[in-house]
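Researcher: Going back to the complex we discussed earlier. I've cleaned up the inputs and rechecked each line, so this should be the final set. Can you rerun the prediction on the complete assembly and write out the structure?
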Amino acid sequence: MAAIGFIGLGNMGGPMARNLVKAGHALKVFDLSAAAADALVAVGATKAATAVDAARDVDFVVTMLPAGEHVRSVYLGSGGLIAAARKGTLFIDSSTIDIPSARETIAAAEAAGMMMVDAPVSGGVGGAEAGTLTFMVGGSGEAFARAKPVLEKMGKNIFHAGAAGNGQVAKVCNNMILGISMIAVSEAFVLGEKLGLDAQILFDISSTASGQCWSMTSYCPVPGPVPTSPANRNYQPGFTAGMMLKDLRLAQDASKMARSPIPLGAQAAQLYALMEAAGEENIDFSGIIKLVRGEI
Ligand code: NAD
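Model: Rerun complete. Updated structure for the full complex:
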């Protein structure tokens, strides 16, 4: 079993770290919130005094932080993880961050003779708790092969997306599809409703016809057709509109960098930004249907 440093024990990192403890790994944990670290200590982890302390004398370091600036500040520079860890430590950053930050951090790790992968996830807090996350991994084949057994304790589908940063590319592309398709499904169900078409009947037809997609069949934004969807619990998340907005803004950055236009992705970002402006960023992103209905 491996010695693992784990930094960032929030909604996602907390349950991911718990699954590594459950699998028998020795965890050294750190979070700016002492309460988050204490919750892991209660299930068998050791508390580190600082992020750098969590990265010393371990085989792997996993980070699950909010955004690119946090990842850069934790890893880079003379006081960062890369400088502090012993040679041979493999870094796994599972945060969803901008592609340049991921590539810059991995390049810095490699320049210091370390291995690192970007490994953002899909599957949300439920997937983190159940250990069924999908990992999209960017980095060398050797780094991927070393990271995989650790990732398998936290997830079910582990994909090698290619070179450094490609995990973030896959994540941004996937979530842009999700953000756009949820708006499309919401518009269709509101239009059908206003024209007298029962939501269940539209679901029965479209879910077996060419309009079929995950936003409809697994996460339907109207209550009823998919009993587990957030629509049935007043749009409690799930995956918040604020998180979707973050990912769509990352998609816009990526679009500028690649000079690849994303007119619908850009429009989707503006619609989720309207939810944020209305103070609704903490409801599930499928609550965008309320915006379409004119309720927010
Ligand atoms: P969170 O805000 O719940 O957790 C982030 C944690 O990082 C917090 O506990 C915070 O105290 C800690 N932290 C911040 N800066 C730190 C530092 N310098 N050192 C140590 N700890 C620090 O966020 P989350 O929901 O767990 O999301 C984490 C990442 O996963 C984000 O990049 C997010 O976009 C991504 N993600 C989230 C979801 C989801 O459904 N929540 C799904 C997929 C991906």
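Model: Worth noting: Residues 166-194 form the longest helix (29 residues).
Researcher: Good, that matches what I expected from the previous run.
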